[in-house]
Specification:
The chain is an all-alpha fold. It contains 8 helices and 2 strands.
Length: about 180
C-alpha cells in the first residue's frame, strides 16, 4: 500500500510538472492519424472539460455503488450473493478471504473512501486531487487484481469492474491535467 502511495505521488508529479503535450505523453504522432480513423483517439481529444467532469461524477458514483456493495457484503455476509458465479469467479477474496483487509482496514472501505474523494474532487473541480486519487486507485486495483488472479486463482467481477471504472477516471484525469499545460 505504501508502494502504491509512493508510485501514485511520483507519477502524478511527473504528469503535472511536465510541459509535454498530450500527444507526446500518450506517444501518439499526428502522421499516424492522417489516413486512419481512430474513434477512441478522436473522442479522447475532442472531449470538453465540462463533459469530462460530468463523466467523472457518474463514474465515481458507479464506483461508490460497487465499493458499497463489497463493504456491505464484508459487514453482513448475506446469504444471497449475486457476485458468486463459481469457485473461481466470485468476490469472496475481497469479502472474507485473505485480501479482505489491509492492516486491519477492509479493502472495500478503502475503495469506498477513494471513490468518495474522487466524487468530491470532481464536484469542486480539483484536477490535482483527482489525478492523485485516480492514480492511487488504479495502482491499488491493479495490485488487488494481480493478487486475485495469480496468487489466489480467483476473479472478482466487481473488482474487475472497479478497475475499468478507475482506469477510465485515470485517463480522464490525465486529459484534464494536460489541458492546462498544452494550452
Amino acid at each position: 500500500m505504501l508502494l502504491c502511495i509512493a508510485l501514485s505521488y511520483k507519477i502524478t508529479l511527473n504528469i503535472i510538472s511536465s510541459s509535454i503535450s498530450i500527444k507526446q505523453f500518450l506517444k501518439f504522432e499526428t502522421h499516424h492519424y492522417k489516413y486512419h480513423f481512430d474513434p477512441l483517439y478522436l473522442l479522447f481529444m475532442t472531449l470538453k472539460s465540462t463533459h469530462i467532469w460530468k463523466a467523472i461524477k457518474a463514474l465515481s458514483l458507479l464506483g461508490i455503488l460497487l465499493a458499497f456493495y463489497l463493504f456491505y457484503s464484508y459487514l453482513t455476509r448475506p446469504t444471497f450473493q449475486p457476485c458468486y458465479v463459481n469457485s473461481s469467479i466470485n468476490c469472496d477474496a475481497v469479502i472474507k478471504g485473505p485480501l479482505a483487509t489491509i492492516f486491519g482496514v477492509p479493502v472495500s472501505l478503502i475503495g469506498l473512501v477513494g471513490y468518495i474523494i474522487i466524487l468530491i474532487s470532481s464536484i469542486i473541480k480539483n484536477k490535482k486531487l483527482l489525478l492523485v486519487m485516480s492514480t492511487f486507485g488504479l495502482l491499488f486495483c491493479l495490485s488487488l487484481i494481480y493478487q486475485e488472479i495469480f496468487v489466489l486463482k480467483v476473479i472478482c467481477p466487481v473488482c474487475v469492474t472497479c478497475l475499468i471504472v478507475m482506469f477510465t477516471i485515470f485517463l480522464l484525469g490525465i486529459k484534464l491535467n494536460l489541458e492546462k499545460t498544452s494550452s
